[in-house]
Specification:
elongated, single chain, mainly alpha, 16 helices
Length: 349
C-alpha cells in the first residue's frame, strides 16, 4: 500500500511536470502494479510460504530425472522439426523464386482469359475467377497462371511443364470442376479419369488410337495421344492399373524381328516339304529298276550294233568258212573296234 502511495506522490510532484519522467512512469506503471499484487499475495500467504516452497522443491527433486529425459526428447524432436521447417522454407523459397507474376487481379485474369481463348480450354468466367483467386494462396495455381503467360507453338509444350495431369484434364474436357484447394482438385481429376478408363474395353478396340476416338465420341472430349497417356500414367501413379488395347500382346517391334520370323517359317516349310518327298520316295519298290537315259555317240552306237551282230566267235567262223572276202571281214573289224586300215591289215597278216 505504501508503494502505491509513493508512486502517486512521485507522479504528481515530479513526473507530472517532467515530460520524459512522465513517459517513463507511464511505461513502467504495469510493472509496479504487478509487483504490488505479488507482494500482497506473499503477505497474505505469510507462514504457509515456506511449506509451499519446500513441497515444490521436494517434487522437483523426485521429478528431475523425468524432466531431464523429457527435455532431451524435446531437444531432439525440436531440432528435427526445425531442420524440416528450414528445408521446407528453403524449398518453398526456391520454387517461388522462378515465378515473377503480377500482383494485379485484372492482369492475372487477363492472362488466363487469353490462354483460354487461344487453346479453347472451355473455362467459364466463374472458373477463371476461381483460378485467379486460388493463385494468391496456392503456389500450384500461381504456377499455372505463370506458365499460361508463356508462348507455346503447340498445347503439348504447355502440358510438358508441371502438373501435366491437371493440364490434360483442362485441355480434354469441355466441362470441368475447378477447386481453389489443389489437393481436392487432384482428387477431382483422379475420379474423372477413373470414370473414363473403367469404361474402356480393350477387346473392342483395335489400337490405342481407336480407343481414343471412341472415348472422344462418347464423352465429347478431345483426348489425343499425349493427354490420353498422361491420364493413363496419372492413374497408374494412384494405383489404378488399366489394360490398353494390345498391352498384353507380343508385338513385332522392328523389321529385324519380321525377317527372323520369316526365316524361321521358310526353314520350317523346307523341312516339312523334304519330309513329304522322303515319305513319297519310301513308297517306291526297291526291285523296280530306274532307267537313266544316256547321250550316246551315233557312230559308237553303230559300231556296237555291228559288234553285237557279229561276235568274235562268229568272225572266226566267217574266216574259216571262206564265204566272206578279206575286205568284208576287215569292214566288220573296223566297225567293231573303230581301228584304221593299217592296224586292221596288220592284224589280218
Amino acid at each position: 500500500m505504501g508503494l502505491i502511495i509513493f508512486v502517486i506522490i512521485f507522479y504528481n510532484l515530479i513526473a507530472k511536470t517532467n515530460p520524459k519522467l512522465q513517459e517513463k512512469t507511464k511505461n513502467r506503471l504495469p510493472f509496479f502494479i504487478t509487483l504490488f499484487i505479488v507482494l500482497q499475495i506473499l503477505s497474505f500467504l505469510g507462514g504457509h510460504l515456506a511449506s509451499i516452497l519446500g513441497t515444490i522443491l521436494g517434487l522437483g527433486i523426485v521429478m528431475s530425472p523425468f524432466i531431464f529425459i523429457g527435455w532431451v526428447i524435446k531437444k531432439i524432436t525440436g531440432s528435427n522439426n526445425k531442420k524440416k521447417s528450414e528445408e521446407y522454407q528453403e524449398l518453398k523459397k526456391e520454387n517461388m523464386g522462378d515465378i515473377k507474376l503480377t500482383e494485379s487481379v485484372p492482369k492475372r485474369k487477363k492472362i488466363v482469359q487469353k490462354f483460354n481463348d487461344k487453346y479453347s480450354l472451355s473455362l467459364t468466367e466463374a472458373q477463371i475467377d476461381r483460378i485467379v483467386e486460388a493463385s494468391y494462396s496456392s503456389y500450384h495455381w500461381q504456377r499455372e497462371i505463370y506458365d499460361m503467360d508463356k508462348d507455346y507453338k503447340f498445347a503439348s509444350q504447355w502440358m510438358e511443364q508441371a502438373n501435366s495431369w491437371l493440364r490434360a484434364y483442362i485441355y480434354a474436357f469441355p466441362i470441368m470442376d475447378i477447386s481453389t484447394d489443389f489437393r481436392r482438385q487432384e482428387q477431382i481429376v483422379e475420379d474423372t479419369f477413373y470414370a473414363i478408363f473403367v469404361d474402356i474395353d480393350p477387346k473392342s478396340c483395335f489400337s490405342v488410337e481407336d480407343c481414343i476416338e471412341k472415348i472422344n465420341q462418347k464423352y465429347m472430349t478431345r483426348f489425343d495421344e499425349k493427354t490420353f497417356m498422361d491420364a493413363y500414367r496419372f492413374l497408374q501413379k494412384h494405383h489404378h492399373n488399366f489394360k490398353l488395347p494390345g498391352a498384353d500382346r507380343s508385338m513385332i517391334k522392328n523389321q529385324s524381328e519380321i525377317d527372323a520370323l520369316a526365316e524361321k517359317y521358310q526353314s520350317f516349310r523346307s523341312k516339312k516339304m523334304k519330309k513329304a518327298v522322303d515319305e513319297e520316295y519310301s513308297k517306291v519298290d526297291d526291285d523296280i529298276p530306274v532307267v537313266v537315259p544316256e547321250i550316246v555317240n551315233p557312230e559308237l552306237a553303230e559300231a556296237e550294233d555291228a559288234a553285237s551282230a557279229a561276235m568274235p566267235e562268229d568272225i572266226e567262223s566267217m574266216i574259216k568258212g571262206g564265204n566272206y572276202s578279206d575286205e568284208e571281214i576287215l569292214e566288220y573289224l573296223k566297225k567293231m573296234y573303230g581301228a584304221d586300215d593299217s592296224s586292221c591289215e596288220g592284224e589280218m597278216m
